[in-house]
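User: What would this chain look like folded?
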Amino acid sequence: MSEDGGKSFAVVGGFQGAHGDAHVVWIDPTNTQVVFVGDDGGMWYSYNGGSKWWKGENLPVSQFYHVSLDDNDPYHVYGGLQDNSSWVGDSQYPGGVTNARWENMYNGDGFWMFPDPADPDYIYAEYQGGEIARINRHTHEARNIKPRPNYKEKLRFNWNTPIALSPNEKGTIYLGGQFLFRSRDHGQNWERISPDLTTNDPQKQKQEQSGGVTVDNSSAEMHTTIYSISESPKQKGLIWVGTDDGNLQLTRDGGKTWTNVVGNISNLPKNSWVNWVQASNFNAGTAYAAFDRHTFGDMAPYIFKTTDYGKTWTPLVSPQDPKGVRGYAHVIKEDLVKPDLLFLGTEFGLWVSIDGGKDWAQFKGNHFPAVAVRDLAIHPRDNDLVLATHGRGIWIIDDITPLRALTPDLLKQDVAFVSARPVQQRIEGQGGWPNGDAVFVGDNPPDAAVINYYQRERHLFGKMKLEVLDSSGRVIDELPASKRPGLNRVTWTMRAKPPRVPPAAQVAGSAIRGPRLVPGEYTVRLTKAGKVSETKLTVGLDRRAKFSAADRKAEFDAAMRVHTLFGEESALMDRILALRKTLAQTGAGLPEGDPLRKNISDFDGKVDAVRKKIVATTEGGAITGEERLREHTDQLYGAILSYEGKPGAYQTAYIDALKRELDDVTKEFDQLLAQDLPGLNDLLKSKGEQPIAAPPAKITANEKALKLGGSKTGVNVLR
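Assistant: Here's the prediction, encoded as structure tokens.
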């Protein structure tokens, strides 16, 4: 930065406090001390001319090259970031996934990253040029295990060197240079199991002879290299390899012999970069290949499929028939369960096919942007689709099971329920902390059962209703039904209604929600213009739970006892408020100075003293203020809801104690009605006034509305 018109400069930003590799700089023309910089590490702000920098931590603009997953519960997400190392983070976390839940594991530009399936304490990661390491995830010790050249030999590794794990041999990994390398002992030794699989064109290997001012030899310029590796999960030793200079190689004998099958692909221009090759999850002879020609100025997608080990190829997407797909292709993958369900990541988003590639639709759920999708992974247990985007970070599409259910027959129906993964009542953990708006927080999956249904057309006429019924056929909840065409998702909290709580000076924080219903079988009923459709919904415990279904039932029963206690407190409060309302109206009707007014006021004071034993009447903060019967009930209710296993004996005993305290207060109120109210009524009658009726043991909604002075909405005053 210069402050004297360019006579002298001082280094600010760059690698001194910020990330470096700046691309754009903005200086506030009204205050040149304010400087914004965009670089390979994100957005940076300085308010003192670049002496100190603040990073923009609330912008989800990270550029992932690749993504992988583990089998933890919740699972972790692994991936490499452009010029920002290799990271592992949570797929979900109590309070949301903050930046702090991501851990940096390696160095340089991050690309491929996998947990070691043979040893969960270790991770494989790399940075540019094939600099692969095996990293202890606890100590962060990183051992470089990159294969080295032989005497007077040069190995060629792409900027984005591919790593692949064998689906058939736990612990076997592959790495691509111009040769395919294999290690069966965590990188202690490497075998070359191929000849040079590239074109080995010397005209494309002149990095040290180009560049002008400096030599182009950062490994970003390395060409004629292996770029994609995929071993068939259906046949050991069947390995596909794609290169950045247009070769598509196949071995069926573990690398002893290789065949270049790219010449069998019709209408594919020569030397097309093989961005991705993927062996089928279902048939050994089937594979998919994605080619990229954007460096030739051709932005079209090229996707092909073979079912005969590469002898013939069928175009799934091509410039001649793009089928609505936009952008050159990065990745093509087959579903783990349904062979015809395909996912295609391009420079402009994610496309999905449910018919083996005959038709494609762009995924736009939750406003997913038109961003480059460089890689994707499907979790085999949770059925989530995890996307590595180059510009919007990691996206998780929760549960693709409904996509597997979209058959041609189902799509012809006006409306139909669609299957989903089993519902768990996930444990509600404690975590997270307020971070303000300057930190990005990733969403968790909904803490709810997800109900999926398909509509052929948008619902326009007649009522549409979605209900949940328990095992006895009783309607326990009604949900807002989505009326959009296509696949719809509606969430159900699996909770009973919140308890009715007597009004007080402060909020009963725990009572704002109802207890979670017990696991079991429920029925979902959709009524669309008079036509009824039903499906079963089985709700289970969290698979991580240490308590039994019987323990869970004991917790629910205890919570409902407190729920009932709240209701009894509210019912008593209804009687008290109704009586006080009548007393106020009667007193207001008497002349000023009438001594009977004092009699009414004195009696009202006794009634109000009873009220003050039920609820706090002095305003306080979140952790201050009075505590009365209602507040103690709320604390117990929250304690029981905090753990869904069997409640402690002291907790159930406390329910009984609070019930006895409420009984004592109820008796005190009833004694006022029996002993004090008749005397007051005698005085009123002696003055020709109407006596005050004792409130009934239970006040109906209509009585509350009348006695409290309002319409039906007046009942809400009591909540």
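The first strand starts at residue 22 and ends at 27. If you want, I can go into more detail on any region.
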